[in-house]
Structure formats: structure tokens, C-alpha cells
Amino acid sequence: MLGAVQFGALAACVVLFVPMGMAGWHLSRNKMLFFSGALFITLAVGVHLTPYFPSISSFVSSVSSVVVLENRDSCISLLHDIVYDVKLKPSRGVENLSNVSNHEELWSWSRSAPVMACGFQKLGRSDASDLLNGSWVVVAGDSQARLVVVSLLSLVLRSEEMDLIRGGLFKRHSDYQIVVDEIGMKLDFKWAPYVSNITDLMIQYKQSKNYPDVLVMGAGLWHMLHVTSSSDFGDSLRVLRDSVVPWLPISPEFNTDGPVTGSVSIQSPHLFWLGLPMLINSMLNTEEKREKMTDAIQVAYDEELYRSKLLRQSGGPLLLLDIDSLSRKCGTQCTIDGMHYDEAVYQAAVHILLNALLIESHQKL
Ligand SMILES: *[C@@H]1O[C@H](CO)[C@@H](O)[C@H](O)[C@H]1NC(C)=O
Ligand SMILES: *[C@@H]1O[C@H](CO)[C@@H](O)[C@H](O)[C@H]1NC(C)=O
Ligand SMILES: *[C@@H]1O[C@H](CO)[C@@H](O)[C@H](O)[C@H]1NC(C)=O
Ligand SMILES: *[C@@H]1O[C@H](CO)[C@@H](O)[C@H](O)[C@H]1NC(C)=O
After folding, report:
1. What angle do CA 186, 188, 189 make, to 5 degrees?
2. CA 91–ligand 2 middle distance (angstroms)
3. Whose CA is nearest to atom 4 of ligand 3?
4. pLDDT in tens, 152-191
5. Rounded CA gap, 30 and 49, in Å?
6. Residue 108: CB partners within 8 Å, gap ≥ 6?
7. For the chain, which domains are there?
8. Which residues are within 8 A (CB) of 131 and not within 5 positions of it... i.e. 6 or more apart?
């Protein structure tokens, strides 16, 4: 809102002082009033029309980000307004993680007016490649995070290329790295089943003063199963938050030797939290999971996440990719183990991420 106030003040000054300045030189008072009125009308019309003309809009946003800023926050909050098409829903989950087919048709953004106004779009291969060109993307977490990597790579790679890398990508409990030469994108998957593993990674990046442009992180399922303590989970989230916060004010030490050509590196790093999926207790595949990963503990873990102030909604640094909401909407038909969901869920998460990057880097395709 500060932007709007400043822009308003600037506009008022222009309306007042430009004609006064001119009058001081060689304009009569009537001419000055005419100019003043004309300027005022031009500015008012301009401000109201800019959203409809992307080129003007980007010009205005370079002068002042009134329009963009207002849209930006509301559009970010609408990114998860996604609907799944029940009729098309497959009756299988990801029983075979290497079976990646295209499930884009299963979901779309809601067609409500505010969502339509944001102009979200499913990016195709070339748009996604343009956006990620030259950037370093890191995804750190558990098997959910790995599924996000699969969705992201199947968006930027051709299916033949995807077939070639499957073996390496699906080695359980291991890191994975790929450089997509064509677009100079480096992607790291870091196996980090616990939040503490992610924190360790943040400390490494900090020590090497080399930060990724886009960082997606998320863990919690392992903790829920093996530690089963929401307060301990909350503590680990706060430690993570403290390790990430120092990154935030863009300081000269950013991008020392990371790639800087890509459009997303302009305001990097972009930080995302990959939320826990909806767990369907009766479908979980071991007795231990059904016993420990109850609905009550899920709620408690969720509360700790909000309490930790890690997420933007609670004043923190990370934008939530709300897998819980997406998996809930996709429903029980989208999972066979009550924990890992159909690709339609992770694909939607990837498109939410890419649209968030577009919004944050003030771009329109
Ligand atoms: C998964 O599918 C691939 C082919 O898409 C196949 O080669 C592999 O054997 C399958 N794995 C399992 C565990 O079914
Ligand atoms: C992937 O899963 C679909 C639906 O179960 C099946 O029809 C298809 O044959 C599978 N593809 C591969 C390569 O396994
Ligand atoms: C990526 O960026 C480089 C340098 O800016 C450019 O030469 C190249 O054509 C871009 N590639 C794609 C696929 O956009
Ligand atoms: C993750 O953290 C756990 C608990 O601190 C540790 O035992 C494990 O070795 C770590 N794993 C990785 C991949 O760093």
C-alpha cells in the first residue's frame, strides 16, 4: 500500500507543480488550470487503464508498482484456487513412480472472476524453459519433494529425455542432480527426510555463499512416523526459519558465482515450502503408519507449521505450496497409499510455483 500512497503523492505533486512551474514561465492562470485538469485526468485514466495494457503496466510498474503490487498479493493468495475434474480422475495413485503420464487435463484454475483476472496459466515447455533459463533450482525433502522434481522435469524435458533419466531419479533415498544444457538450468534434488537435514543444507549454502535461485523444501512425514512429536517438529521448523531469514534482505553476497542469466534470478532466492499431503489413515500401507500418523497428529503438525512463522501467511519467508489442499481436492481417488498422490497433484503444485515466480518477477508471457 505504501507504493499506492507514494504514487498518489507523486501524482498530486505533478498535477500541482508542473502547471505551476509552467505558469511561472509563460502560461496564464487559465492555461495553468487547463493543464492541471488535463494532467489529472490523464493520470487518473492511466492508473485505471494500465491493468488492461501489459506494456503500459510494465512501464508503470517501473515508475511505481501501484497496480502490480495490488494485484500481486491478491493473485498470490488465489494461486491455489484449483479445481479437479472428478469425471476424469484416474482410479490409481502413483503405485509405480516411474509411470509418469500427462495429467494436466485433470485440473484447472477455478473460473471465478478474481482468479481469471490474475491470468494464471499452465506453462508449456518453452515458456517454462524461458522462465527457468540459466537458473539453479534446488528441491530438498522427502518423497513428496521427489515427486515435485518429476513433475518439474517432465515439464521442461521431452519424454524421451525423461525416459533416459528415470533410473537415476528414482533411486530411493539418494540425491540427484541434472543440468539441462539446452536452457542452462541446474536442478538439484537433495534427499532430506527431516527438517534438520534441510537446515544443514541451508547452512552449507550460507557457508559457500552460493545460493540457488529457486529453493523448494519440505519434510515432515518421516518425523511424524519416527519421532511423532509435534512440538519437536515445531522446534526444528523454527531452527530452519532462523537459518533462512538471514538470506532475505538482498545483499551483495547473493549470486556471487551462481548463474545469473535466467529471468528468475533477478530477485532470487525464491523460497517455497512444500506442505504435507492429506494422509488417509485407513489407506496407509503399514500398521505402524496407521497407528502413528493419525488425524490428530496431522492437525498438530499443521498447527506447528503455522506457529513456527516459517510461512509467508504468518510473516515468514516461505511461500506455501499447499499439497494438503491440492490432495484434498483431488481426493481419495488420487492416491493408493493414502500418502503419495497422483501426478495431477504435484503437477498443479509445479504450475503454482511457476506462476508465483512469474508474478514475483513481474513478468507476463
Ligand atoms: C514401473 O514401470 C516401468 C515402466 O514404466 C517398469 O519398467 C517397471 O518395472 C515398473 N516397476 C514396478 C515396480 O512395477
Ligand atoms: C501407466 O499407467 C497407466 C494407467 O494405469 C497405464 O495404462 C500405462 O500402461 C502405464 N504406463 C507405463 C509405461 O507403465
Ligand atoms: C537462454 O538464455 C540464453 C542467454 O540469455 C539465450 O542465448 C538462450 O537462447 C536461452 N535459451 C532458451 C531456451 O530460452
Ligand atoms: C538427516 O538427519 C538425520 C537425523 O538428524 C540423520 O540421521 C540423517 O543421516 C540425515 N540424512 C541426511 C541425508 O543428511
Report:
1. 150
2. 12
3. 261
4. 998 999 888 988 888 888 788 899 999 999 888 999 999 9
5. 28
6. 82, 83, 85
7. 4-52 (no CATH), 122-360 (3.40.50.1110)
8. 123, 262, 263, 264, 354, 357, 358, 363
